[in-house]
Design a protein that fits this description.
There is one protein chain. The protein is α/β, with parallel strands linked by helices. It has one domain. Helices cover 46% and strands 17% of the residues. The strands form 2 sheets. It has a 7-stranded mixed sheet with strand order 1-9-8-2-5-3-4. Strands 6-7 form a two-stranded antiparallel ribbon. Helix 7 links the parallel strand 3 and strand 4. Helix 1 packs across helix 7, helix 2 crosses helix 4 and helix 3 packs across helix 4.
Length: 295
Amino acid sequence: MVKDNIKYRIIIGLLTSVAHLPLRVLYVFSDIAYLSIYYVVRYRRKTVRHNLEMVFGTADRKRIIAIEKKFYRHLCDCIAETVKLLHISDEEVDRRVDVTNGEYIDGIIRSGHSVVLFLGHYGNWEWVQAIIHHFKEPLVGGQIYRPLRNKLMDRVMLKIRSRFNLECIPQKKAVRRLIGVERSGQKFVIGFISDQRPLGSALHHWTQFLGQDTPYVVGGESIGGHVGAEFVYLDVEKTSRGHYRLTFLPVVPDPEDDGPDPYTREFMKMLEKTICREPAYWLWSHRRWIRRHDQ
């Protein structure tokens, strides 16, 4: 335990020192990291290429490579931006993260409903927590997360993700915590990153996503249904390097679609449109389609 605490303090100390650098300097390191990760380390190059070819085909090889390279540049930028959360002012974050309609969430809270906020691994999801600045109504804000296997790195990421005092709720504790919030008379806005692959024991729900048979998680819709929450999608646009536009959109399932989990599947359709608008900013290095529906 003592050794872990020392390691944690060393890592946080080093990362905080780096975070004191201006973003323009961090982007220089990002450019260097891109060259190393893409050309030398070749981090998950086969996975990224395989995923892109599954979605966009193999006919236009130049397009695939262009998306691939842009993805890796963006991934390196995301790493730099995430470290920067350890030392960045609210003013700078607000200049870089444009939330277009925070009043929409305020209206839902005033109407007496909590909010399940669906989002994906798109843009820089670690900067999404800045949305809490744009709500005027009292609420409990937080995000559901899957703890990392490496407890030391999990502790480091929790430190980074607490930059805006959002509550980080482990998946296994989400139901009890959010139902407890409702019973206390409070309302919540909780982010669910819902494009991740379910654990192997939970591959029960499938849909078409980016042209592929894709398993999906149902936790957000299940919890939201228990407490009468409203379902909202966070659309993310990367407007320039280090600048993002976030827009809240209602998740409205097709009334003629009588399939299961209508809000989750509608969210995935909305995320698909976001990805197709600018593919490079989705997390293509994720092993999303390693299982088939018939397995």
